[in-house]
Every structure is written in structure tokens, then in C-alpha cells.
Amino acid sequence: MDILIQRDGGVLTIALNRPDKKNALTAAMYQELADTFFEAEKDASVRVVLLRGNGGAFCAGNDLEDFMKAPNTDHDAPVLQFLRRISSAPKPVVAAVTGVAVGVGTTMLLHCDLVYAASTARFSMPFVQLGLCPEAASSLLLPRVAGYQRAAEKLLLGEAFDAQEAVGMGFVNRVLDAAEVDAFALAQAHKLASLPASSLRLSKSLMKSADAAAVAHRIDEEAGHFGTMLKAPEAREAFQAFFDKRKPDFSRFD
Ligand code: COA
Predict the structure, then answer these.
(1) Hey, which of 65, 94, 158, 180 would disulfide with 189, CB 3.0 to 4.6 Å?
(2) Could you tell me the pLDDT band of residue 215, with boundaries at 50, 70 and 90?
(3) Residue 58 pLDDT > 90, yes or no?
(4) pTM of the prediction?
């Protein structure tokens, strides 16, 4: 199973469990994530959601083989269902990041409430490097959280950066030893789970409500462009180059 769900008191842990592919997300995995977030919303006994990756990686982003097949990018595509659920989750979402967090592996963190990362974690958003554009409302949220130039450096160049830099950018709370990050994140999640749920929900909603409509709109706006760009020759070259284990050659494109 590529997604593992575990309950521990009020904490529902979602573990990405496709370690041989660095937890890259397929359409089926997005669907399961979306459904799990929806179930968590409805189940009053779930107080907090904890996201983590198994096998030493958090998430290598969208599965590039799925991208090669020009996947469903309709309004109700699994990836969009997931992004809408996590971005509007009424309950706290905690993330524990070890290893790589690429593409949506990083941008989903912008929707989490508490993010803890291992000192070995590596973040990147190589959308432009793949001939694509930002998603998950990262084009709106990253400049807000990190400042325009820092966001531009990460979103335009797409180069990897470490957990300390992610703290400086404002979307990681704390850096821990790799051996400690999961336990620490779980302990923080349990702390939240022991607090009054209605108070948590209201506090989160008050912090998020001013931006909620803009975030929802930007997710859809980005997705429209993303869907078109997935089929364009620049992206096809980038995906093929990844599987050929060579550098992409964009020189023939205007
Ligand atoms: N989609 C599909 N397969 C992926 C993948 C992805 N996003 N990321 C990694 N994999 C696969 C690799 O093809 C490899 O498979 P193989 O063993 O069958 O050859 C396996 O996972 C391990 O990856 P590898 O590249 O050997 O690990 P690494 O530690 O050297 O590098 C990454 C890890 C994540 C930096 C690198 O795999 C990578 O850049 N992946 C692509 C990330 C990406 O562009 N995601 C989309 C963002 S929009």
C-alpha cells in the first residue's frame, strides 16, 4: 500500500509509503490522500493529521511517469481534490520531513500548520526546470511567507535547499536530527490533540480565512496553466531526460 494510515489517540498519521520511488505521488495516491483528509474532517475523534514519508524521503513530488502519460487535469482530478482538501483542512496538520521534498512535496507544506524537518532534508520546487509552473498556490503563498526575491530564487531556479534555509524562509518551524524528527512531530501533534478542538479549529480558521478565497482561486488558476504545460514539448523533453538520466536540452524551444 502506497499510503499508510495509522491512528494513535486523536492523531491520524498519513505515511507516504512508496520508498522505492522516494514517495512520488501517483493519481491513486492523491485520491487516497484527498479521501483521507475528507474522512478526517468528518470524524470528530480525529483531532490532528500528521503527514510523513517512509523510507528516508518525504515526497519526490508528482510521479513523472504519470506526468508522461498526460494525466487527468480536469477540475476534479485527484491532485486538485487533494490540494483543495489540505489547503482548507479545518483541523491542524503537522508535517515531519526527512530526506527529499520535491515539487508538491514542498508546496504541500505551505498548507500545513506545523512543519518539522530533519537536518538532512532537501527541499526543491523545480517546476520551471521541468517546463511547468508553480502549483498548490505556491505562486501566491511562497512570496508571502518568504518575501518575493527568496521565493523567486526557489521557484525560478528550482535549486534544492536545506532545512535551515527553509526555516529562514518561514515555512519550517524547526530543524531536528533525522532520528528525532518523527517522534518530535508526533509529540507536537499529541499536544495539539489534547487541546480543545473547537478552539483549535476557530483559531486556525481565523488565521486562514482572509486568504482562503485567493488560495482556492490560485490553485485553480495555476492548474489551468499546468495542465496545458504538461503536454507542451518543453515538459516532454524534461520528463524524457529524467528517465534517460541526462540533462534536458531546451535550446530548440523559443
Ligand atoms: N517520479 C517517478 N519516479 C521517481 C520520481 C518521480 N517524481 N522521483 C524519483 N523517482 C524514482 C527514480 O526514477 C528512481 O527509480 P529507479 O530506481 O527505478 O531508477 C527511484 O525513484 C529513486 O530515485 P533516484 O533518482 O535514484 O534517487 P536520488 O536520491 O538520487 O534522487 C530525487 C532523488 C527526488 C532528487 C530525484 O529522484 C528526482 O529529482 N526526482 C524527480 C523529482 C521531480 O522532478 N518531481 C516532480 C516535481 S513537479
Answers:
(1) 94
(2) very high
(3) yes
(4) 0.98
CA nearest to 95, candidates 201, 165, 14, 32: 14
CATH of domain 3-179: 3.90.226.10
Query: Which ligand 1 atom lies nearest to the CA of residue 21?
Result: 21
Chain centre distance of CA 204:
19
Per DSSP, helices labelled H in 43-180 are: 64-68, 78-87, 104-107, 138-146, 148-152, 163-169
For residue 76, give the nearest of 134, 34, 122 by alpha carbon. Answer: 34
Distance between CA 69 and CA 63 in Å, rounded? 10
Q: Which tens digits make up the pLDDT trace of 94-110? A: 999 999 999 999 999 99
Q: Domain limits of the chain?
A: 3-179
Please give the grid coordinates belonging to residue 101: 521534498
The ligand 1 site (C-beta within 6 Å) comprises 21-22, 24, 60-65, 100, 102-103, 126-127, 130, 242
- Residue 63 CA: which ligand 1 atom is closest? 1
